[in-house]
Specification:
CATH architecture: Alpha-Beta Complex
Strand content: 35-45%
Strand order of the largest sheet: 2-1-6-5
Number of helices: 4
Structural class: alpha+beta
CATH topology: Cathepsin B, Chain A
Largest sheet: 4 strands, antiparallel
Radius of gyration: 17 Å
Shape: globular
Order of helices and strands: HHEEEHEHEEEEEEEE
CATH class: Alpha Beta
Helix content: 10-25%
Number of strands: 12
Length: 157
């Protein structure tokens, strides 16, 4: 699989106890709306940064108003389909769609949250809390659901 090849190539000479424990990989899948060809862009992470993102649906607005957002809702926002403007190498179409997956899960997952937004020439602190489950199953958010892993909450600060 391309994901494994890229991951192994990128980190062939950078292995350590820390990277083996905390390193993960995200895949962005981009699909052309003309010919439906798919391409993947991979990037490494040591902590998964989640954000509530722009408010576009009634459900998301309701979550934001509640001031407490479930972690699964933030993961769904991370994975949701977005419009993509990039040229297809096969049909030259400019329109596409993309969504993110976790392609490699680390042994220990660190999740952090974007707490500041730049608005009107200043940073504004986001006013929400996150509801954590005691156990988190990530199989629905991985590129291959067989690679899913369940994590237990160990520390929260």
């Amino acid at each position: 699989m391309k994901s494994d090849e890229w991951y192994n190539f990128k980190l062939a000479d950078k292995n350590s106890v820390i990277t083996d424990l905390f390193r993960g990989q995200v895949a962005k899948e981009i699909e052309c709306l003309g010919c439906h060809e798919k391409k993947y862009i991979f990037s490494l992470f040591w902590d998964l940064i989640l954000t509530p993102g722009p408010i576009t649906s009634k459900k998301a607005k309701k979550l934001r108003r509640s001031k407490s957002i479930p972690l699964k809702a933030l993961l769904q926002i991370f994975q949701r389909t977005k419009k993509e403007n990039s040229s297809c190498q096969f049909c030259q179409n400019q329109k596409g769609k993309s969504h993110n997956f976790i392609s490699k899960l680390p042994e220990a997952l660190i999740i952090s949250f974007e707490k500041f937004k730049y608005q009107e020439e200043e940073f504004v602190k986001a006013r929400y809390s996150v509801k954590f489950p005691i156990e988190l199953d990530l199989k629905d958010y991985t590129l291959n659901s067989k690679n899913g892993k369940a994590y237990q909450l160990i520390y929260l600060f």
